[in-house]
Amino acid sequence: MTRHGVLHQGRGRARRRTVRRGAAVVEMAVVTPLLLLIMLGVIEFGWVFMTTETLTNATREAARVGVLQGSTHEDIRNRFNAAIAPTGLSVSPSELIITDATPENPVVTVRVAIPYSRISLAGNWLGLNIDRTIGSSCTMRKEGQL
């Protein structure tokens, strides 16, 4: 082959590489938002799952304090708040419901229900109006006599 033929082939290969690079950029531009959305969804699911498990554990610990002789609602609330402190959530008295034991029903029940919008990291930026609560409940029998 002549020198001109080799140069011509070299230019053709360079042109093909440029076209392939352009296709890769377009493919990446299409795929990146989908990958980011999936990644953010996994992070959101993990956070909500962790928070739900923390609320479950906190209600169990609060109920355990509630069944002890001489415990007060303040003791129960303090134990609950200490257990959920790592999540950074604050629970209002209307969201934490404590049912005392009675002679007819000797159990203590601790319930918590928090709106999903307060737990979610993403908030409502996707336009999803998720009207649900995340919560837990624990019931234990009171120790000793009432």
Describe this structure in words.
With 146 residues, the protein is α+β, with helices and mostly antiparallel strands. It has one domain. The protein has helices at 3-66, 73-84, 116-119, and strands at 96-99, 107-115, 133-141. The longest helix has 64 residues, at 3-66.
Distance between the termini: 104 Å
By DSSP (H or I, 4+ residues per run), the number of helices equals 3
Q: Which percent range fits the helix content?
A: 40-55%
Cα gyration radius (Å): 29 Å
Overall number of structural domains: 1
Number of E strands: 3
Write down the oligomeric state: single chain
Provide the residue-averaged pLDDT.
Answer: 85
Query: Beta-strand level of the residues, as a percent range?
Result: 15-25%
The largest pleated sheet is described as: 3 strands, antiparallel
Q: Choose one word for the global shape.
A: rod-shaped
Structural class designation: alpha+beta
Report the order of strands and helices.
HHEEHE
What keyword list fits this structure?
146 residues, three-stranded antiparallel sheet, 3 helices, 3 strands, 55% helix
Tell me the layout of helices and strands.
Elements: H1 3-66, H2 73-84, E1 96-99, E2 107-115, H3 116-119, E3 133-141
Antiparallel strand pairs: 1-2, 2-3
Task: Give the structure's gist in a few sentences.
This protein is of the alpha+beta class and 146 residues long. It has helices at residues 3-66, 73-84, 116-119, and strands spanning 96-99, 107-115, 133-141.
